[in-house]
UniProtKB/TrEMBL annotation:
It comes from Rhodoplanes serenus. Pfam families: ParD_antitoxin. This is Uncharacterized protein. InterPro entries: ParD, ParD_sf, Ribbon_hlx_hlx. It comes from the Bacteria.
Length: 86
């Protein structure tokens, strides 16, 4: 494994030390690795969200020209669809 030097605030370092002292983690390196795993998961989730939004945008653009919609008719459409579901 590669060793890196990381600077943490006093608060962050204290939290890392607390996690090890409580027995939740075996070492400070384990705490940092777990934090990085969570960060990687969050970044992957964000990338998937952005990809979904791009697909939805593209689908919307491909669905045809825009149309004006007022709030009341939109809500009425939602109510009709909900009622049709039973």
């Amino acid at each position: 494994m590669r060793t890196l030097t990381v600077s943490l605030s006093r608060r962050q370092a204290g939290k890392v030390e607390e996690a090890v002292q409580s027995g939740a983690y075996a070492s400070t390196s384990d705490v940092v690795r777990d934090a990085l795993r969570l960060w990687e998961q969050r970044e992957e989730s964000r990338a998937q969200d952005v990809a979904r939004l791009k697909r939805a945008y593209d689908d919307g653009k491909a669905s045809g020209p825009p149309r004006a919609v007022d709030t009341e008719s939109l809500l009425a459409d939602f109510r009709d669809k909900l009622a049709a579901r039973g």
